[in-house]
Amino acid sequence: MAAARAGVPERGELPKYFQVKQKIDAVLDELGQGTPLPTEREFAERFGVSRMTVRQAIRELRLEGRVQRSGRSTVAAGPKLVQPLILASYTEGLRRQGRRPGRELVVFEQLAADEALAAGLRVEPGAPVFHLERLLFADDERVGLESTYLSAARFPALATDFDPRTSLYAYLRGLGVVLADADERIETVLASPREVQLVGTSPALPMLLLNRVTRDRDGLPVEHVRSLYRGDRFSFTAHLTAEES
């Protein structure tokens, strides 16, 4: 068990690329955020391995968010953004971490709700629904893509009164809407070609997909949100309590 906890299989030795990965990880601890890594050739000579072995090690470190591409260089990445799983906006969550949130509008349209969306928002199939799609930024870095659906009948002035660069939750509070609870599902996915282009990530990079239906204090659905976050830049936390038996 001790060997397994250290990353060593119960039988056999650590793969060579994994040993190199651990050594590069130690180098990263000494580098500041945004500092370019030594080249693959330099790492290969330092550790006495092939460049292919170094490349595999760096590929895994990138998937884990320890390094990232910057132009033609691979640089040390900063710490992941930590979002608590609470009923709060993306804007509020980033500001708590001293980061600067940002949003860029991609799509703002009115469409007819299909059966699944209608069921989630408790409207009739075909009812008008606003779809708001926005890129998410943290300190000018693209980190996610968010699609929000709301009933057009309930929020008819959304298209004219809401600034999509700002917090939707703050806008809803201004209308007197009190958010009370939500159901949220989290899974890992690969981004579609369109999402890869918008977020500016690699098609091989795992993404965190969150689907949320938020309700007000009367139990009425307010929004259905599909949020896609870069797996190398985000982690989520939750406070758990014991269920009474």
UniProtKB/TrEMBL annotation:
State the SUPFAM superfamilies in the record: Chorismate lyase-like, Winged helix' DNA-binding domain
Q: Indicate whether Thylakoid appears among the record's keywords.
A: no
Which keywords belong to this entry? Answer: DNA-binding, Transcription, Transcription regulation
SMART domains for this protein: HTH_GNTR, UTRA
Which Pfam families has this protein been placed in?
A: GntR (PF00392), UTRA (PF07702)
Keyword hit for Phosphoprotein: no
One GO BP: negative regulation of DNA-templated transcription
Q: Which residues form the HTH gntR-type domain?
A: 14-79
This protein's source sits in the domain of life called Bacteria
Q: What InterPro entries does its record include?
A: Bact_HTH_transcr_reg, Chorismate_lyase_/UTRA_dom_sf, Tscrpt_reg_HTH_GntR, UTRA, WH-like_DNA-bd_sf, WH_DNA-bd_sf
The terms under GO molecular function for this entry are: DNA binding; DNA-binding transcription factor activity
Question: What is the name of the protein in this document?
Answer: GntR family transcriptional regulator
Q: Which organism is it from?
A: Streptacidiphilus pinicola
UniProt lineage: Bacteria, Bacillati, Actinomycetota, Actinomycetes, Kitasatosporales
